[in-house]
Structure formats: C-alpha cells, structure tokens
Amino acid sequence: MTARELKAQLRNERLAARDAIAPEERISKSLAMADHAGEAVAFAPGTIVSGFLPIRSEADLRPLMARFAARGARLCVPAILDKQTIAFRELTQDVPLIETGFGTVAPGTEADILDPEIMLVPLSAFDIRGHRIGYGAGYYDRAISRLREKRLHPKLIGIAFDCQEVAHVPDEPHDISLDAILTESGLRFFASWIG
C-alpha cells in the first residue's frame, strides 16, 4: 500500500469515527477545547488567528475563537476561492457570511484578506509526532506554502477529537507538520512557542 493509499484509508476511518460522535457530545467536547486553549495559547493583542466555522462533524471553534477575540486577536476564516485556493477573510460581527463551497461559509469579498500568524487547522487524522492528514484537497498545505513563500511562518494548531489520533501518519516530503494539537483532552505541544 502506498503512502497515499494508506492516508486515504486512515482518513476514511478517522472521519467515520468523528461522524459517529453524537451532536451533543461534540458540543461538550468543543467547549472543553475552548477551556483547554482559551488562555493557554500565547499571543499578543492584534495577532491574526485563523479559525474555521464547522462543517459536517468538525469541532465547533466559535467558543474558542470568541475567547481569542476577547484577548485581542483579529480573527479570520478560510474562504474557498477556487479548486486550488483558500484566502483568509477577516471575521467581524458586521460582515455577513456567504456560502463559499465545500459546505463552508465565510465573509464575502468585502472582508479584508489577512495573513494568519496562528492557524487552527482542521484535519482528519493526526499522530503523536504532529503529522496530520487533511481532507485530501490540499487547501491548507497550499495556503501554508504561500505564506512561507512570503517569509511568513504561521504557528499551526491542529483541531481534532481524540478519536482521530492514529499510531503513525505516513509522512511525505511535502507534508507540513503541526506545532500543537488541540483535542477535548487538552492542548499537546510539539513546539515550545505556544505555552
């Protein structure tokens, strides 16, 4: 089995496990994430943090993003521009949300596009080393690569439930590893900058 095939298998298995979490349980797990990371992630006021609005069975990051905003973070969320590209549009109370594809919503084109300094990254599976499997479309990998081409190095916090952990993610040279992972059990660090 190739690395790509193994990733696809792990993705399907872990997303099925996530889908099996009851909606009420997902809410309590999402609130636990906000409690674990709301104050523990270090950043200065004005720091640009990208989150995401939940689709399918993802964790609901709105409570965590509200806590970050209360600490002075500027929030943004991904908007799908085309089959290759996402941009991070500023999330403010006065800008309405529109459908942007893949089941996502985001602010419209009137919102500012920001370069995140901290990114909350959705994923399908992760391992103890900080390697992740995304959803397979590569949006985040390309977005992070574009930021790095601009000499920006956003800190990456994976967002998942405990049931999405696997023993080993087959990593390839183009893969980008996480600085931390946030689940309902806590915030685990792979890099020292966060705490």
- Separation, N- and C-terminal Cα atoms: 38 Å
Largest sheet: 7 strands, mixed
Overall residue-averaged pLDDT value: 94
Strand content: 15-25%
Number of strand segments: 11
Number of helices: 4
Strand order of the largest sheet: 3-2-1-6-9-10-11
Overall geometry comes to globular
Topology of helices and strands:
Blueprint: H1 3-19, H2 23-37, E1 48-50, H3 62-70, E2 74-80, E3 86-90, E4 97-101, E5 104-107, E6 118-122, E7 125-126, E8 132-133, H4 139-149, E9 155-159, E10 180-183, E11 186-189
Parallel strand pairs: 1-2, 1-6, 6-9, 9-10
Antiparallel strand pairs: 2-3, 4-5, 7-8, 10-11
Overview of the structural elements:
- α2 packs parallel to α3.
- The mean pLDDT is 94.
- α3 links the parallel β1 and β2.
- The termini are far apart.
- It contains 4 helices and 11 strands, in the order ααβαβββββββαβββ.
- By secondary structure, it is an alpha/beta fold.
- The longest helix has 17 residues, at 3-19.
- The protein has a 7-stranded mixed sheet, sandwiched between helices.
- It is globular.
- The chain has helices at residues 3-19, 23-37, 62-70, 139-149, and strands at 48-50, 74-80, 86-90, 97-101, 104-107, 118-122, 125-126, 132-133, 155-159, 180-183, 186-189.
